[in-house]
Amino acid sequence: MQPTPEQSPHHAYPDHWEADVVLRDGGTARIRPITTDDAERLVSFYEQVSDESKYYRFFAPYPRLSAKDVHRFTHHDYVDRVGLAVTTGGEFIATVRYDRIDAQGRPATAPADEAEVAFLVQDAHQGRGVASALLEHIAAVARERGIRRFAAEVLPANNKMIKVFRDAGYTQRRSFEDGSVHLTLDLEPTAESLAVQRGREQRAESRSVQRLLAPGSVAVVGTGRTPGGVGRTVLRNLLGSGYTGRTYAVNRAFDAGLTEIDGVPAHRSVGEIDERVDLAVLAVPADRVPEAVADCGEHGVRGLVVLSAGYAEQGAEGRERQRELVRQARSYGMRIIGPNAFGIINTSEAVRLNASLAPESPAHGRIGLFTQSGAIGIALLAGLHRRGAGLSTFISAGNRADVSGNDFLQYWYEDQDTDVALLYLESLGNPRKFTRLARRTAAVKPVVVVKGARHSGSNPPGHAVPVSRIPDATVSALMRQAGVIRVDTVTEMVDAGLLLAGQPLPAGPRVAILGNSESLGLLTYDACLAEGLRPRPPRDLTTAATPQDFRDALAEALGDQTCDAVIVTAIPWVGENGEAETGDGEVLAAALREAAATGPAKPVAVVHVEIGGLAEALAAAAGTVAPARTGPRTAPPARDAAVTPSPGESAPEPATTVPARVGRIPAYPAAERAVRALAEAVKYAQWRRQAAVPGKVPDFGDTVDEARAARLIGALLGPDPDPRGRPLAHDEARELLGSYGITVRPTLPAPDPEAAAAAAARLGYPVALKTTAPHLRHRADLGGVRLDLANESELRRAYGELTELLGKPAELQPVVQAMAPRGVDTVVRASIDAAAGAVLSFGLAGAPSELLGDTAHRLVPATDRDAAELIRSIKAAPVLFGWRGSAPVDTPALEELLLRMSRLVDDHPEVVSVALEPVVVATQGLTVLGASVRLAPPPVRGDLGPRRLPSY
């Protein structure tokens, strides 16, 4: 919508207030400002509101709006008077309005910071979370316009509206006056209001995915009249999977007399179907998709899977076609998987949905799989099938124009049929949200990610999302901080997923190795050391070992309190004639399963070389049926849970001798693959244990002056700051950092030898003479730094050498600084990435660390645990802890510095970058020798605003 000439030219139409939102029931709606063009919509909306709702809104019978009312409710200045509407299909279903008031409740303008607010929701849409979403958005609008409080008058009988205000999480006050409830809400976001908002977001987005994955009816739009083609293939796959709902074939080209195809009712449009369809799969050319979407939307379809290609993957014209597709679908309240999607699968016995191009549904299992690439999806389905693994759900989202990996993390978080989430991602549309959701999900179940397009510097075709500028190594570190298991290849993802889905988490890194091949055992031992595990010496059972020997050895290892996991290595037995016997895999599998079932709950993995039937027998041992639970899983599957074979699988022969409580034992063709998967499980289990007791963010008491820093930043940026920002001078940076207890050692300019001598006399000897020219800064290797100058004579001599070697003083910009105690030179940085947020970084100073990329990263705000891990996670960390006999440095002081830096950039997003270099950490204390700070208007933080769907 655009403003009309009647609206004030000083307050243009605020199109940034427009937003698509997901409601409580999983449907979508649009929130936008009301304009003068909305008079007819408003009248029509009001006519559909019940008399009771009108009474609650106006405190009196109010059957219709007068012309004066319509004018008042559609004419706003977008500052002191604002109205927002929620629309579906272009029509209003709810409105909210605020009017700025003064202390006496009379109409006012700024600087008055209170407004009266009132809502009205059509009865047919009450209970969908419409008012809650509207409150989030109108509160954000009010804060933007300088309003800090809302006042509302509500009739005591209007319990629904009172609950909306009460449950919002804002600080509020309530009183009863003149027969109504008077509510006052402070609009400053609180931890509770943010938690409420994110909880509603999770439930709504999870529900929107659930509607796609468990539809009661499916229509395949574009079903071919003859066998073959995409639409007919999807229909065949739906029928072949045993889908439990109702299926319809739709094609506008069907003959008028055609009533059935492949045993399914056939229709020429969705509108001809005599029930509401939950899910439509669109398999029509891109130019016919808008017509199909309109047909679906006008007849109540809840969601779409768009298989059609010809969108953003084909350039600018396709990107615009994709944007229009999303806008059109959302206008009807529908969510989209695709376009250019491969499809979706849900193996639940209650659904059995295969709305994809995969000819066979995978077996039922407890792994959820999301991929943006159809080709990768095909490969993963095939790989998992070969290894006997089942899935709970599968999604191949194609261009991912709407529903994304974030939505499925929301769904899997509470899905009791999914124990492990696997994601192949080629872009992160909202890294802040992804890390937040991944951290929450990883706290209850493993999240394994492969990130494609790591080094291209741009998004793959079709993925029109913001591009993060942070390096891939930083992205990896931030994922690790969030508990995500990031692997490099899809093979590694499957390897890790199989272990995590079928085995308990290890209690530590101690690994027992046993098998009938000394060489294979040694390879496994070496691989464990390379992955940071603590292997025990391999136990060689010799090539004469029988399955019973394996069983006894595994039972003994599992019962050993000094080991946390077991890797079994096996090669074929050599018969009396010297030939390998490869056919006893089922017998060995039965022996290993029996030992695992009767021993303590520890992970077991098998490395085998060409033993026929072993991997298949281990995989088919049992399904991974989860124990009964009432919420997200917070512990590994119990080994005493009842387990049944997955659909389509048969129980193994030795099932009568093996308790059904053992899960699948993963088998690997190479030691390195098994060990890498186990190492990931060890690191994840350690993260889970630590995440159970969160770290703390200290406030540092009186040593932090947040108000002083805010005043300083405001003065430095000025009333009309340059969007590009500005670097701070040395003294400005020192003052700002000092307000957070970060002391930077002063430097004095030395434009000539006399000034250098005067500066040294003021600071006290010994001193350092340093150039500050950009090309020489922090480059002692180029001769731009002279240290330990004990007197004026040495200082003058160094000054002469410096200028003779490197250039004139005006070029070098030399400074003098008092010497700091000897220690380890380090670098502490913080920067804000528009997509990922504020990132805290640490490494050792010098070219080698920079060249090797030996820098660790954490998201801000960092906790005390994050700071401790940050300094210990770089490869050169031993230098800080007494490497080769050197004295350990004061790491607690370094951790405190990191936390103070984190607090600074978290409190003041205008601080877009800080670099402390070098920070010399001594055995007692540390010294910050150099600091650079850049201020800029803060980037918009969508993760703190009202919930909204991405708009590309």
Please report the number of helical segments.
27
Beta-strand residue percentage: 15-25%
Bulk shape: flat
Based on helices, strands and strand pairing, what is the structural class? alpha/beta
Helical content stands at 25-40%
Contiguous runs where pLDDT drops below 50 for at least 5 residues: 1-10, 622-661
Give the termini distance in whole angstroms: 18 Å
Q: What is the mean pLDDT? A: 88
Number of strands: 41
For the largest sheet, list the strands in their spatial order: 1-2-3-4-5-6-8-7
Please explain how this structure is put together:
Strand 16 (343-346) and strand 17 form a beta hairpin. It is built from 27 helices and 41 strands. The chain is of the alpha/beta class and 952 residues long. Residues 1-10 and 622-661 have low confidence and may be disordered. Helix 8 runs parallel beside helix 9 (316-331).
Topology, element by element:
Blueprint: E1 19-22, E2 28-33, H1 39-47, H2 51-58, H3 67-74, E3 81-88, E4 91-101, E5 114-121, H4 130-144, E6 149-154, H5 159-166, E7 172-177, E8 180-186, H6 191-213, E9 217-221, H7 230-240, E10 246-250, E11 260-261, E12 264-267, E13 279-282, H8 289-298, E14 303-306, H9 316-331, E15 335-337, E16 343-346, E17 353-356, E18 364-371, H10 374-386, E19 391-396, H11 405-414, E20 420-425, H12 431-442, E21 447-451, H13 472-481, E22 485-487, H14 490-502, E23 510-515, H15 518-530, E24 534-535, E25 539-540, H16 547-559, E26 565-570, E27 573-574, E28 580-581, H17 585-598, E29 604-608, H18 614-619, E30 667-668, H19 671-691, H20 706-717, E31 726-727, H21 730-738, E32 747-749, H22 753-763, E33 767-771, E34 785-789, H23 792-806, H24 809-812, E35 814-818, E36 824-833, E37 837-844, H25 847-852, E38 855-859, H26 864-872, H27 891-907, E39 911-921, E40 926-928, E41 931-935
